[in-house]
Amino acid sequence: MVRPSLTPEERRRGEQLGLLLRDVRGDRSIVEVAAAAGMSAETLRKIETGRIPTPAFFTIAALADVLGVSLDHLALRLTPATPA
Amino acid sequence: MVRPSLTPEERRRGEQLGLLLRDVRGDRSIVEVAAAAGMSAETLRKIETGRIPTPAFFTIAALADVLGVSLDHLALRLTPATPA
DNA sequence: AACTATACCGGTATTTGTATCGCGCTGATC
DNA sequence: GATCAGCGCGATACAAATACCGGTATAGTT
User: Fold this and answer.
1) Cα distance from B35 to chain A (closest Cα, Å)?
2) In terms of CA atoms, which chain B residue is nearest residue A78?
3) pLDDT 10s per residue in chain B (84 long)?
4) What is the pLDDT of residue B84?
5) Strand C contacts (CB < 7 A) among A residues 8-47?
6) Neighbours of B79 (CB within 10 A)
7) Which residue in B28, B55, B59, B41 sits closest to A13, CA to CA?
């Protein structure tokens, strides 16, 4: 009747997204990228380390824009099972 | 020093996303699409009507997948000013 | 050694996302 | 005209997203 806790799989998915984003960031600093995407460095750090497993759509969109990656590219690599 | 409230622009952006999604849904029922995307009909309804201005990334990704639209397609039409 | 920059983590605070329930409305069918 | 299904909204409940602060660690510079 309320919002259920995130499943381990959802958390894993968040980790994957984080790893992917971190990889794409490359040498650029967290502070720089976060500022460019209009978010705090803490938030970006948590996203990259998977401690924010289900970030907001526009947050990821801004990041993808700054990092020069396609959203579809990100999503495709992260739609694991999604069974039934 | 805490999480600030959403700006009117962010809310407008959420409305735009909702309109876009509703448009793409076309004739299919909310119930059907929501079920296919793994979410409740209420949630989809709120997203479409802009009452959830900043939905989760994976939620939109699942919807985009079900509706057969590109995430980049959605994001591009919604990155309004984002100046400086 | 002191300083600086970058990164990580834990805690705290507030807003938002998501789910369920209940009520009202409309349209179709009986 | 009563019933039923589907859509919409408001209220309620809890978990999560995001931001800021303080502390810690590591590496590079002077």
Assistant:
1) 10
2) B58
3) 678 999 999 999 999 999 999 989 988 889 889 999 999 999 999 999 999 999 999 999 999 999 999 999 888 766 544 433
4) 32
5) 29-31, 41-42, 45
6) 12
7) B59
The token pair that represents B37 in the structure block = 């995307």
> Residue A54 CA to nucleotide D14 C1', Å?
16
Query: Which pLDDT tens digit goes with each residue over B9-20?
Result: 999 999 999 999
Residue A1's nearest nucleotide, by CA–C1', is: C20
* Residue among B10, B56, B70 whose CB faces A54 most closely: B56
Nucleic strand D under 7 Å from the C-beta of A79: no
Tokens of A25: 């960031």
| Tokens describing residue B68 | 């057969």
Nucleotides of D under 7 A from a protein CB: 6-21
Residue B16 parent element (H or E): helix B8-25
Phi and psi at residue A9, to the nearest 5°: -70, -40
- CA angle at B50 for the pair A45 and B10, rounded to the nearest 5°: 45
pTM greater than the 0.85 cutoff: yes
Q: How far is the CA of A32 from the C1' of C6 (A)?
A: 11
State pLDDT tens for residues A26-75: 999 999 999 999 999 999 999 999 999 999 999 999 999 999 999 998 88
